[in-house]
């Protein structure tokens, strides 16, 4: 199916969770034997096209597997297809895909969230046991919340990004989606750990690397010393959960009601809740979009019709470059390349990019202070219920604001999980737990308590 066929096609009988359906059996008899996995279509798969939801890459077939795909195979998992997504990960509803929107299995008139909407929909609909997504500013947690499944955004440097087509490298991580916290953690166990192909997975606390789990030796990567699935034991007795007021106030009432019920349940299980404040998050969405668009404008320069992408035809370089990009990219991607290029251009660099980096540092400091008072922080994952398809696409700003609770976590490179906390108006509501760097066990533990 070409991008044009998909755009025009009527797929009401199908959720359109996959861009490409193709089965690859796992090698071994590992911990994921017998499990089916959907892989987001921005994660490279050898011999299987990897489109990033873009017409630009409708015909692109990678010559190698991403590290996470190799690890899936080694763990015995069976790949069942490449999951639909917002084009290059830019969006929160899976409506910017050149292959048409994905539907939310809970209510097909609504969006599944995004950008990993195909991954979450496939798991929620039972078309895959597990899925991989990528999270630059919420793209694993957002669709997990909207589809009523579990999603984990790992600490930056926990999971290799080798083979992930870059959108904004300083922010993104590949993360698991599943029906239960334990299954998501088992998938995390399979993919996490150092990789010689990705220097950001190097870990040495003694050299000033991020602080790891307390009982991990300084030079051992936390993933090599931890079994994440074992932390899904629901034992939260004595845990302190911080609630950042700024990230609850902005959410819709029906979402807050579900969130507060879930907090009360946790208190009944021995959790102490405390209020914390993250004043900097007021600037997080602005800072995130400046940084993400700036990085995107640079990363997407390679799609020039020569190295990658659709052919821009004969003629001079500028014309064929422009033709390839005019044809290959959708509106949201073009908007972001333009804004990112502007933010980085001489004379404006100080005004936008540097300010955004200052805000990013401030967000990090605020989280550090909050973790002096609490083991994990809890917020609603998304401030709203899943919108109907077509409702939000015309207003990019309202879409960006939907990311208020997820993007601060990426700016600070921290781990977070979204777990289903209940329903409002028959639609799923997700609860997010954020942990300190490499504090995956604590958020998995907290998430598994909500699930019970
Ligand atoms: N919605 C955010 C964006 O559009 C997050 C996307 C993501 O995490 N890939 O940038």
Mean pLDDT rating = 93
Task: Tell me the overall shape.
Answer: globular
SSE class: alpha/beta
- Strand order across the biggest sheet? 1-3-2-4-6-5-10-11-9-7-8
Number of strands: 11
**Share of β-strand residues:** 5-15%
Number of domains: 1
Our Rg estimate from Cα atoms comes to 20 Å
Low-pLDDT regions: 4-12
**Bound ligands, each once:** glutamine
* Top-tier CATH class: Alpha Beta
Distinct helical segment count: 14
Helix content: 25-40%
Please describe the biggest sheet, giving its number of strands, its sense, and whether it closes into a barrel: 11 strands, mixed
Q: Judging by the overall fold, what is the CATH architecture?
A: Alpha-Beta Complex
| Terminal CA distance | 42 Å
Order of helices and strands: HEEHEHEHEEHEHHEHHHHEHHEEH
Within CATH, the superfamily carries the name Amidase signature (AS) domain
Overview of this protein structure:
By secondary structure, this protein is of the alpha/beta class. It has one domain: Amidase signature (AS) domain (Amidase signature (AS) enzymes). It has helices at 3-8, 67-74, 117-124, 141-147, 181-191, 245-249, 253-268, 284-299, 317-328, 331-344, 350-370, 396-401, 407-411, 440-451; strands at 18-24, 36-40, 78-83, 130-135, 150-153, 173-178, 240-244, 272-276, 376-380, 416-424, 427-434. The protein has an eleven-stranded mixed sheet with strand order 1-3-2-4-6-5-10-11-9-7-8, sandwiched between helices. Strand 2 (36-40), helix 2 and strand 3 form a beta-alpha-beta unit. It is globular. Mean pLDDT is 93; it is low at 4-12. Glutamine (GLN) is lined by residues 89-92, 115, 135-139, 167, 292, 403. Glutamine binds next to loops. Its EC number is 6.3.5.7. The active site is at residues 40, 115, 139. Belongs to the amidase family. GatA subfamily. Keywords: ATP-binding, Ligase, Nucleotide-binding, Protein biosynthesis, Transferase.
């Amino acid at each position: 199916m070409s991008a044009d066929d998909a755009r025009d096609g009527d797929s009401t009988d199908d959720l359109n969770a996959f861009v490409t359906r193709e089965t690859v059996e796992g090698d071994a008899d590992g911990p994921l034997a017998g499990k089916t996995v959907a892989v987001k279509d921005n994660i490279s798969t050898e011999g299987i096209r990897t489109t990033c939801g873009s017409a630009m890459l409708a015909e692109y077939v990678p010559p190698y597997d991403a590290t996470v795909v190799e690890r899936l195979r080694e763990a015995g998992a069976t790949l069942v297809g490449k999951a639909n997504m917002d084009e290059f990960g830019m969006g929160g509803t899976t409506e910017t895909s050149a292959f048409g929107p994905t539907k939310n299995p809970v209510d097909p008139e609504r969006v599944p969230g995004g950008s990993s909407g195909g991954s979450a929909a496939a798991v929620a609909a039972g078309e895959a046991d597990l899925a991989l997504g990528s999270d630059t500013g919420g793209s694993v947690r957002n669709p997990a919340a909207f589809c009523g499944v579990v999603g984990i955004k790992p600490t930056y440097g926990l999971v290799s990004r080798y083979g992930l087509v870059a959108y904004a490298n300083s922010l993104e991580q590949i993360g698991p989606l599943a029906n239960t916290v334990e299954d998501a953690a088992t998938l995390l166990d399979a993919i996490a750990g150092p990789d010689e192909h990705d220097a950001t997975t190097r870990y040495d606390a003694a050299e000033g690397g991020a602080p790891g789990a307390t009982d991990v030796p300084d030079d051992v990567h936390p993933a090599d010393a931890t079994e994440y699935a074992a932390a899904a034991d629901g034992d939260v007795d004595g845990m302190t959960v911080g609630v950042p007021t700024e990230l609850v106030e902005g959410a819709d009432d029906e979402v807050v009601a579900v969130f507060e019920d879930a907090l009360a349940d946790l208190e009944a299980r021995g959790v102490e809740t405390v209020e914390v404040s993250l004043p900097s998050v007021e600037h997080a969405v602005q800072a995130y979009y400046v940084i993400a668009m700036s990085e995107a404008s640079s990363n997407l320069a390679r799609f020039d019709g020569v190295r990658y992408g659709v052919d821009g035809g004969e003629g001079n370089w500028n014309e064929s470059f422009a033709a390839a990009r005019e044809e290959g990219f959708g509106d949201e991607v073009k908007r972001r390349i333009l804004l990112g290029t502007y933010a980085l251009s001489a004379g404006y660099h100080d005004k936008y990019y540097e300010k955004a980096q200052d805000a990013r540092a401030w967000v990090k400091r605020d989280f550090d202070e909050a973790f002096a008072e609490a083991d994990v922080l809890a917020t609603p994952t998304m401030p709203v219920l899943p919108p109907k398809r077509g409702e939000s696409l015309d207003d990019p700003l309202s879409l960006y604001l939907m990311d208020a609770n997820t993007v601060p976590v990426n700016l600070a490179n921290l781990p977070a999980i979204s777990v289903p906390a209940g329903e409002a108006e028959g639609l799923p509501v997700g609860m997010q737990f954020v942990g300190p760097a490499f504090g995956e066990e604590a958020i998995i533990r907290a998430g598994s308590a909500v699930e019970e």
